[in-house]
Design brief:
With 112 residues, the chain is an alpha+beta fold. 50% of the residues lie in helices and 20% in strands. Strands 1-2-3 form a three-stranded antiparallel beta sheet, with helices on one face. This is DUF4907 domain-containing protein.
């Protein structure tokens, strides 16, 4: 009888510890997701046209005042052009992939 009581106490203790750890893990994951800031694209006016910034909260991750992948420092002609390239880069940043842009991709997006 005493052995059965001891086994039950041990079993309930283990179940209680697992329940507490599970609850702690759930609460911790909810807190960490609240602290993550959304990564956003902002098209900005620059000298000679437009550029874009990729931001996480107030922190600028990428500041691109000119068209990437070309030899000269030339601003985007339109807000829409900056938006198209910025969206491509934003998608890659969010997917944790190489976010560089090629000349071929600029042509595909009709960026001049």
């Amino acid at each position: 009888m005493k052995k059965k009581k001891t086994k039950n106490i041990i079993l309930y203790t283990i179940i209680s510890i697992l329940a507490i750890l599970t609850i702690f893990s759930i609460v911790k994951s909810k807190d960490s997701s609240k602290n993550r800031k959304e990564i956003l694209l902002e098209v900005v006016s620059v000298k000679g046209g437009y550029g874009y910034q990729i931001k996480e909260g107030n922190r600028i991750l990428i500041d691109q005042p000119f068209i990437p992948a070309i030899s000269e420092e030339k601003a985007f002609k339109s807000r829409e052009d900056a938006q198209k390239v910025g969206e491509l880069v934003l998608k890659r940043v969010k997917n944790h992939t190489d976010f560089s842009v090629s000349v071929k991709e600029l042509r595909e997006l009709n960026i001049e």
